[in-house]
């Protein structure tokens, strides 16, 4: 039988059909094997990584078939341990596919240092607005006699005077000494001044 006749023979088409079936079965089996070996299609519950060190989270996610990716370090939050995870995306409890990256942010190792501003002779409202912008906290208030009400006369931290340019840790408490807005003269001194004024007026009328 010539080759041309063989190409159009029943035997050729039968063998071709059998070969195609074998190829299809092999591909189906191969895909099934991949699905089985990679857990394709299965969803994984994202664990809660809050307050974990990055190394611990990496081990935990690796066991789950997930990856961790560090995005950034945020300002220190005292409710979290230093260098622990404070945020994650996707959040805990989410359903994800195998191999998904979990993006995390770490807590700083401590409060950052800030430069203390010049608050002397500013109003208490101005001073507190400045402190809050720097991450500092108002502490105790003490009023002393001064004609200017709520004017900052002195500032201190942990009992020590603080001046402009000093370095303080964020979240430090700043204590204030403020003017009470009352006259500096005592009542007796005012009475004496009034009497002197009356004597002057009498002398000028005579």
From TrEMBL:
The chain crosses the membrane at residues 12-34. This is PASTA domain-containing protein. The keyword Glycoprotein does not apply. It comes from the Bacteria. Residues 41-108 form the PASTA domain. InterPro entries: PASTA_dom. Keywords: Membrane, Transmembrane, Transmembrane helix. Coiled coil: none annotated. Pfam families: PASTA.
């Amino acid at each position: 039988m010539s080759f041309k006749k063989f190409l159009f023979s029943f035997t050729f088409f039968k063998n071709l059909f059998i070969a195609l079936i074998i190829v299809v079965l092999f591909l189906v089996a191969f895909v099934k094997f991949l699905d089985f070996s990679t857990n394709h299609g299965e969803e994984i519950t994202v664990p809660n990584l809050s307050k974990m060190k990055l190394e611990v989270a990496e081990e935990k996610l690796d066991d789950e078939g997930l990856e961790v990716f560090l995005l950034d370090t945020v300002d220190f939050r005292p409710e979290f341990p230093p260098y622990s995870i404070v945020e994650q995306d996707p959040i805990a409890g989410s359903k994800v596919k195998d191999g998904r990256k979990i993006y995390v942010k770490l807590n700083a190792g401590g409060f950052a240092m800030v430069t203390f501003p010049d608050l002397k002779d500013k109003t208490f409202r101005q001073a507190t607005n400045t402190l809050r912008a720097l991450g500092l906290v108002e502490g105790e208030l003490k009023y002393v006699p001064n004609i200017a009400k709520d004017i900052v006369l002195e500032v201190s931290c942990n009992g020590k005077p603080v001046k402009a340019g000093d370095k303080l840790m964020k979240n430090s408490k700043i204590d204030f000494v403020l003017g009470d807005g009352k006259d500096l003269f005592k009542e007796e001194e005012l009475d004496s001044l009034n009497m002197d004024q009356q004597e002057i007026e009498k002398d000028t009328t005579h």
